[in-house]
Amino acid sequence: MSDLTTDPYRTSLRTAADWGLVAIALPTLAALALPVGVRNGAVLGWFGGTMAPLFLIGVVLAVVAGASAPKRVWGAWAELAGVALAWLLPLHLLNEGLDLSAGWGLWLFLAAATLLLWRVMGVLAGVPGWTRSVIVPGLFGLGLLVGWEVLVRGFQVPAILLPPPSRIAAALAANAPVLWDDFRQTVLTSVLRGYVMGCGAGFLVAILADRVPFLARGLLPLGNLASAIPVVGIAPIMVMWFGFDWQSKAAVIVVMTFFPMLINTLAGLGNSERIQLDLMRSYAAGYGSTLVKLRLPNALPFLFNGLKINSTLALIGAIVAEFFGTPVVGMGFRISTEVARMNLDIVWATIAVAALTGSGLYGALALLERVTTAWHPSMRGR
């Protein structure tokens, strides 16, 4: 539905449209009096080249068309096209060899474009369906990457401090076989095994502690104590106990994931309401039937909460454990060795792989939670 005038949130955005466009237009006009960059010692203004005026005209047209954005979706997409043009300009100028560090007109122009992007995202976030759940988060992440690229290259930040995303992507492509071996050793060998053992043990012990109450009273304080133990303290101990292969990394993961799963499972098992338990007793249901048919289904949101938390903890634990001893492969091994060699591109590429892996695992569990607990009250409105 393209007409958004019936939505109160969109109506408030429409009221704010005038001052929003003014706030965007003022820095854009001020930027025209300032340079966009320096080439061979010569300061270039907006009309010193061929492309900058075209980018500016495209953005102005998008802003004019986007005046209807708070009431119609097509206007928001027009504004988004203007933002894309604005952020393509510094990339174009960088590829032409301009020094943008003194191009204050360009940076002021990008600040106005960022305000425009804020306005656009506010409109698109109110559109139901894939636009709100997928496109808006994707555009937000893409905007962060483009901003990172432009700022790092524009201000000539040394790559040893912070490389641009394009350089990290090039390192990913150039070292793909090595990074795949590291991924297979860390994730497929250590993380998955330790994750299954740690979460499984936490779940089973929680069931036992629920049946034997004094275990819960004794284990919960231990859980608080274990959560305060730094992973860098237990990792070298586990390496000495279990050796340099995946067993020591799995042991670290078990220690890190056991108690979060235990605590979340116990909290979930205690989430059933008294009237529901009384109903089960009225049908002469025993402990096992009540557990399987009522308490575990009600505990699913808590179980998935523990699983999602542990999905990131397991990856962190495995990588940190590899700093203290591993075969000559693994993400932690790669980070520690390449930092010593000052190969920061490979280090950032490994970090990118780890971040994408953790996000993928978390997202897969969140999707599975949505599918399996769609009936639960906690999922209403999501």
Automatic annotation (TrEMBL):
Keyword Lyase set for record: no
Source organism superkingdom: Bacteria
Domain ABC transmembrane type-1: 201-369
Chief localization: membrane
Cellular compartments annotated: Cell membrane
UniProt-recorded name of the protein: ABC transporter permease subunit
Transmembrane segments: 19-38, 44-67, 74-94, 106-127, 134-155, 192-210, 222-244, 250-271, 313-334, 346-368
Keyword Transmembrane among UniProt keywords: yes
Keywords: Cell membrane, Membrane, Transmembrane, Transmembrane helix, Transport
Signal peptide limits: none
CDD domains given in the database record: TM_PBP2
A Pfam cross-reference name: BPD_transp_1
Topology term for the membrane: Multi-pass membrane protein
